[in-house]
TrEMBL record:
<dbReference type="InterPro" id="IPR050222">
    <property type="entry name" value="MATE_MdtK"/>
</dbReference>
<feature type="transmembrane region" description="Helical">
    <location>
        <begin position="66"/>
        <end position="85"/>
    </location>
</feature>
<dbReference type="GO" id="GO:0015297">
    <property type="term" value="F:antiporter activity"/>
</dbReference>
<feature type="transmembrane region" description="Helical">
    <location>
        <begin position="106"/>
        <end position="124"/>
    </location>
</feature>
<feature type="transmembrane region" description="Helical">
    <location>
        <begin position="248"/>
        <end position="265"/>
    </location>
</feature>
<dbReference type="GO" id="GO:0005886">
    <property type="term" value="C:plasma membrane"/>
</dbReference>
<dbReference type="InterPro" id="IPR002528">
    <property type="entry name" value="MATE_fam"/>
</dbReference>
<keyword id="KW-0472">Membrane</keyword>
<dbReference type="GO" id="GO:0042910">
    <property type="term" value="F:xenobiotic transmembrane transporter activity"/>
</dbReference>
<feature type="transmembrane region" description="Helical">
    <location>
        <begin position="176"/>
        <end position="197"/>
    </location>
</feature>
<dbReference type="Pfam" id="PF01554">
    <property type="entry name" value="MatE"/>
</dbReference>
<feature type="transmembrane region" description="Helical">
    <location>
        <begin position="144"/>
        <end position="164"/>
    </location>
</feature>
<feature type="transmembrane region" description="Helical">
    <location>
        <begin position="25"/>
        <end position="46"/>
    </location>
</feature>
<keyword id="KW-1133">Transmembrane helix</keyword>
<keyword id="KW-0813">Transport</keyword>
<keyword id="KW-0812">Transmembrane</keyword>
<protein>
    <submittedName>
        <fullName>MATE family efflux transporter</fullName>
    </submittedName>
</protein>
Length: 267
């Protein structure tokens, strides 16, 4: 056999091994992210299923509320997604001392975006009238959205901390917390929809408040994870307070806003 051909054949498996390892690494990063995103959006599905067991009116009001809050959530998450590449860039360069200040500015952005998102949900009633929604559905739909609006700032904080963790290659925390949030949403729905354990029976409106509580649970859980886990200690994100630096926030918005608009348009 030609020595060149023989050498090529002999070394062929070695060339494919790095590709397999690369794909394995990418899948290890991407799969938890996909599961976390699915768990977050699945809360709306769980709300619709459980509200549908109460009455068609409750089911319709929850479905209508989902059609409003989920696009707003996607817009918000797209804006905050700019945190991930910025953190990854500094993490890859070994600039760990720059990650903390960056994420703290992203948390200020999350506060602004979360409050704006809450305001949009709280003021959605004119949109429902413009859509010529059945008047009997407007009140329960707005009650559902009020509960979601309560949790929106918490969801924004969670998303920034999730992007911070994802940017450093740690995607498992968001998956675990997302699944725990989804599991917590079910008993909270059961309690607030049907009025168990001394809680008022809110019907479909209770789904919104259950989801709002879960959003804050996810934010606090992610904050606790990134604060206590030794891996994050060198970035020191939550150990000090920084005032907002609008130049940094503006750069984050310039990256994230086009992403958010694109995702919002696709929804």
């Amino acid at each position: 056999m030609n020595p060149v051909i023989e050498n090529t054949v002999a070394t062929a498996p070695a060339r494919t091994t790095p590709v397999r390892l690369e794909l394995k690494g990418l899948l290890g990063l991407a799969l938890p992210i996909m599961i976390a995103q699915l768990a977050t959006t699945a809360m709306g599905f769980v709300d619709a299923v459980m509200a549908g067991r109460v009455s068609p009116r409750d089911l319709a009001s929850v479905a209508l509320g989902n059609s409003i809050w989920i696009p707003v959530y996607l817009l918000m998450s797209g804006v905050l997604l700019a945190t991930t590449p910025k953190v990854a860039q500094r993490f890859g360069a070994g600039q760990f001392d720059e990650i903390g200040p960056l994420v703290r500015q992203a948390l200020w952005l999350a506060l602004c975006v979360g409050l704006i998102g809450s305001g949009l949900l709280l003021s959605a009633e004119p949109i429902l009238h413009w859509m010529k929604v059945d008047p009997q559905l407007i009140e329960p739909s707005m009650g559902y959205l009020h509960g979601i609006a309560f949790g929106f700032p918490g969801m924004a904080f969670y998303y920034v901390l999730r992007c911070y963790s994802d940017g450093m290659g740690r995607t498992r925390p968001s998956m675990v917390i997302g699944l725990c949030g989804l599991l917590l949403n079910i008993p909270l729905n059961y309690t607030l929809i049907y009025g168990h354990f001394g809680a008022p029976a809110l019907g479909g409106v209770g789904c919104g408040w259950a989801s709002g509580i879960v959003m804050w649970f996810m934010a606090l859980s992610m904050a606790g994870w990134t604060f206590w886990a030794p891996f994050y200690a060198r970035t020191r994100v939550l150990v000090r307070f920084d005032r907002p630096k609008w130049a940094v926030i503006k750069r984050l918005v310039s990256i994230g806003l086009p992403i958010g608009i694109a995702v919002f348009a696709e929804s």
